[in-house]
Fold this sequence. Notes:
By secondary structure, the protein is an alpha/beta fold. The chain has helices at 15-19, 58-66, 87-96, 98-102, 109-113, 131-138, 175-190, 201-208, 219-227, 231-244, 257-261, 270-284, 299-305, 320-329, 337-342, 377-388, 423-436, and strands at 2-7, 27-31, 34-43, 48-56, 115-126, 144-151, 161-174, 289-293, 312-317, 343-347, 362-366, 392-398, 439-446, 457-464.
Amino acid sequence: MLLTLTTTHQPATDLGYLLFKHPDRVQQFRQSFGTVTVLYPEATEERCTVALLLDVDPVRLARSRARNAPDFSLAQYVNDRSYAASSLLGVAMADVFSTARSGRCDARQDLADSAIPLEITIPVLPCRGGAEIAHRLFEPLGWSVEAEPIPLDEAFADWGDSRYVRLRLTGVVRLADALNQLHVLLPVLDESKHYWQGPDEVDKLMRSGEGWLAAHPDAQLITRRYLGRRGGLTRVALARLAELGDEVEETIEPADDEEALQPAEKRVPLNTQRHEAVHAVLLELGARSVIDLGCGPGQFLDLLVRTPAFTRVAGSDVSTRSLQHAARRLHVDRMSERQAERVQLFQGALTYEDERYAGFDAAVLMEVVEHVDPPRLAALEHVVFGAARPGAVVVTTPNGEYNVLYEGLVGLRHPDHRFEWSREEFVAWCEHVTASYPYAVEVRGIGALDGTLGTPTQMAVFTRKEATDD
Ligand code: SAH
């Protein structure tokens, strides 16, 4: 199995820094199912290619599986595993380039953060659903896709095509994103499970899918295929994606494929309900200028920008990567001068005073407070309610009590959440804020109401009391 990755970003040999693999060396890594060789067939200033060769040992593969999933068939020894790229290649690549996937590179951090020209080829790739599916999965991520079906036998054209394609992807993409996308999408294209999936598989999917999966138009298909027929895990993953993305249906499909074919009642994703609810509150308040604090990749900002009633819209986040996504979503580079004056994006941490936060009719903290360490919350309260002092502050956060309704979910909805408050805890926090700062508060719910557990999202609308000192 072979995968090559080329860049023409100059100096191209910087690829070695990004991958933590020196271009002059041939290195080998042992996996439970075979050996990976990493080498650079070309490494010049103009063009640098790394090749990852996976040599699968079917006997070792069978043994590594046997512990968890005994399989007595001969097929586990005689199969296409040694030749065709597959989930194993995804696993091997993810492992060998794990630091590169994290996006960290002390030697060339700027480069690791930048989208660079990349070309990826996989000469033989099993592709269930035909070449079309490769287009469907990679194109929304900004890749140009060539997926050429490989004939079953070149000597007998009328035998038709095999289920393999030759895949070539070209695009200008951040290297870490490219590697994470391959990690998820190679097994998705292959759609047969060759390795044991542990209980942390959902976390792996969330980590590799960060920043692109939630908004992928085929997020459901990807999640279902990645996690296989383990409906429970698929449900957990979709619930978590629904927290993050705007395109994922909250209606979690039945585990059984046959049931999945039945038309499911179309429900509005929680994320969309949240956007609509906060948007309605802002209009209700008559806000003209709005700042989205912790705007993430800018899904809600996009809605604000599309609303002419808002004459000034700003978004800020601590993550530059999220801001890059937001800038792309809002087409900041193509904005008219007028629009560019109306819309601002800037980086900032909510635990530090910043005058750019001040002067807005309303501020939104949508799904942000639960990302802040509890000892730092007082700093955030001061920055928002004490220093920036907008006319209104709309806060949303998960209702932890509701989590029992997410089948199979253990722990919190997102690995970065520091807490998920019960309704009582949220009200206590709101009251603590109104006791310290001159605001009144009203607490509401967002999403389907459960008689006992409340709604999945809680919302507080703080309005500033007429200040006597300004
Ligand atoms: N508001 C967006 C994103 C929520 S995810 C939405 O509803 O979709 C939480 C966001 O808060 C992340 O983008 C994260 O980078 C940001 N964040 C977390 N802690 C922060 C801090 N201290 N200062 C600013 N932003 C922060």
